[in-house]
Amino acid sequence: MYVNRHAPHGTIYPLEGLEVALIGAAFDQDVSMAFIGDGVFQLTKGQDTADLGIKNCAPTYGALGDYEVTKLYVEQESLDERGLELNDLMNLTWEDEQEDWAEKPSIRLVSRAQLSDLLEQQDVILNF
Amino acid sequence: MYVNRHAPHGTIYPLEGLEVALIGAAFDQDVSMAFIGDGVFQLTKGQDTADLGIKNCAPTYGALGDYEVTKLYVEQESLDERGLELNDLMNLTWEDEQEDWAEKPSIRLVSRAQLSDLLEQQDVILNF
Amino acid sequence: MKFSVMVNEGPYTHQAADTAYHFTRAVLDAGHEIFRVFFYHDGVHNGTRMTTPPQDDRHIVDRWSELAHDHDIDLVVCVAAAQRRGILDKDEAKRNGKDGDNIAPGFRISGLGQLIEAGIEADRLLVFGD
Amino acid sequence: MKFSVMVNEGPYTHQAADTAYHFTRAVLDAGHEIFRVFFYHDGVHNGTRMTTPPQDDRHIVDRWSELAHDHDIDLVVCVAAAQRRGILDKDEAKRNGKDGDNIAPGFRISGLGQLIEAGIEADRLLVFGD
Amino acid sequence: MLHTVNKSPFDSHSLQTCLGLAKAGSDILLIEDAVYAAMSGTAVTSMVESAMNSSTIYALEPDLKARGIGSEKMISGINLVGYDGFVELAVTNDKVQSWL
Amino acid sequence: MLHTVNKSPFDSHSLQTCLGLAKAGSDILLIEDAVYAAMSGTAVTSMVESAMNSSTIYALEPDLKARGIGSEKMISGINLVGYDGFVELAVTNDKVQSWL
Predict the structure, then answer these.
(1) What residues make up the domain containing A41?
(2) Phi, psi at residue D114, to the nearest 5°?
(3) Of the listed D20, D68, D78, D87, which one is catalytic?
(4) C102 near D CB under 8 A
(5) Domains plus CATH for chain C?
(6) Does E85 touch chain A (CB under 8 A)?
(7) Is the CB of D127 less than 8 angstroms away from the CB of A127?
(8) Is residue D117 within a helix (H) or strand (E), and if so which, with residue range?
(9) Which residues of C are identified as catalytic?
């Protein structure tokens, strides 16, 4: 599991973390991502870096489903602290081959306690 | 004024900040230093980096007086938050030429409000 | 008005190197003068010509070099900070027995005195990145 | 037991590069195996031979090179992270039209797949520095 | 005096330290990840609103835009500036302190 | 699971995040600037003490020594380890999570 804890654009950690997640998926690993703390800002709608001249990594999250990265866990407490709700996040989906390619949401809101359980189940945990 | 806000050893900012302060003094600038937040840890007694194999910059603070850096302002609120008092800090002194080289303490405890006034009086402020 | 700029973070890793660049351009666009840009801490990594970002991303080092060329800006990399982090010009490489250098065009390596001078000579000193 | 180590901060700037080294040595001293040390983010700066620290300080890059030499440790620098930050080996320099390289002895440049493999092959993956 | 802050207020104590030391009448400019402090309805909103009683708060517009923070999500009364406005603030204030 | 934390608890929220997510029975190792969390009488002491009810807290001795934190300044019940003990903790726990 890749744990994302940094806000986007201010540092390169989100972008370089995303690169690891995509490579992990290409290596047929069971990739899941967790977004906690400022990491939840990576998924907010309407990010536009044109005026900064910085490559915008936000659209890449939309492509994660195509790489079979379909489990994006977002900590509810982190959203609350930042005045955000699910509706403020990008609408990220994946297509379920098992159910005639039905489109399903990738973002799963979890409580801190649930996330704690999830972390315990991982083989490898990397922080970005 | 050089404002020191980082704990020692974990990052190089204190050491590289000290290098600037010493050069500033060599250029005959009126150098003062402020220690706030984790910066107050730079001045604590008994630092010994031998087991880390890292150069210990703590003794250099003792030499500041010789370079006529005699005003080290330490924020009282930052000490309080960290459970520290003046006695936990190194005994740093300078010799006052005007008073027959009398040894005087370099560390001056100031409140946040006093430090705020001091910052307002500076020409140039650099953060480390 | 005369400005000096201090850059303390490496390119790409932290946005501070971008902000410093955009600010410097805005100073020039407003008709003010840049006395010097001084690179300290990890900021010294802004000054290596070995940087090769992805083609669809901005080239932070080249941007500085072009600014220096077009507006005759003095880009100074701190020698002590640079040595620790592996940034060298020809002279430094020779002095330290290294087989090559990596400084980018428009940058020069010098001492911390250049930062003190930048603080004295300019009306304002702006610091970017910690 | 088999360990992999990931180093995400540059030498000198953050202590993480030191901690990673001391941990790696302790792993070897305890009779365990190091499968790989992978350098990512600013960690790639651990792998440049241009580094020249003050004479009274430790030489972090040389320490890694010696460890690789003495214990046959695989030191891998991530190519994407390295390109952005100006770390190159001979092949990369040639491919990108650069006039020299700066990688230190004992290090090699490779892809992120090496990190994924390090996670799979080792019993434990330890991460140092953010 | 102009104070610039560039760290997220949720991750670092920089903004808090800045607000604790800034004198009444200061200009405070939020840049980079610090622009998240301009959002309404967050855990730090009340700290920023109370600072607005004694200081003027600015936020760098390209940084807000990059982070998808539209005016509807912002504390009202925070002033938007571009890089040109940043330069202007540095000119009109007699000195600049960076909180990093 | 072993959790390592390397940031000062006064400057970063890493330790707090770690303690919020660590399950009961975890081992938590303070390294680098995080060893300041092992000090008694500070603003974060009670947070660390309360974590000690469900987790075991360790601190890296070379880092404590570098920062002049002697045992008389430490919360009692925190365990000291060297780099060898760090390795041992990484062996006995089935995985390691770094909070950075």
Answers:
(1) 2-127
(2) -65, -30
(3) D78
(4) yes
(5) 2-128 (3.40.1260.10)
(6) no
(7) yes
(8) helix D113-121
(9) 78
Asked if A19 and D113 come within 8 Å (Cβ–Cβ), the reply is: no
User: CATH number of the domain that B68 lies in?
Assistant: 3.40.1260.10
Beta bridge partners of E74: E39
- Nearest CB to D130; choose among A20, A27, A127: A127
The tens digit of pLDDT for each residue in A69-108 reads: 999 999 999 999 999 999 999 999 999 989 999 999 999 9
Query: CB-based burial of residue B68 (10 Å sphere; 0-12 exposed, 13-18 middle, 19+ buried)?
Result: middle
Mean pLDDT by 10 residues, chain E (100 residues): 96 93 96 98 98 98 98 97 98 94
Please name the residue ranges forming H helices in chain B: 13-26, 58-63, 76-81, 112-120
> Residue holding tokens 């000054």?
C47
Give the neighbours of chain C: at least 3 Cβ pairs within 8 Å. A, B, D, E
Q: Phi and psi (nearest 5°) for D43?
A: -55, -25
From first to last of its 130 residues, chain D has per-residue pLDDT tens of 999 999 999 999 999 999 999 999 999 999 999 999 999 999 999 999 999 999 999 999 999 999 999 999 999 999 999 999 999 999 999 999 999 999 999 999 999 999 999 999 999 999 999 7
Number of domains in chain A: 1
Cβ atoms of residues A42 and A16 within 8 Å: no
Question: Hey, is the C-beta of F13 within 8 angstroms of any chain E C-beta?
Answer: yes
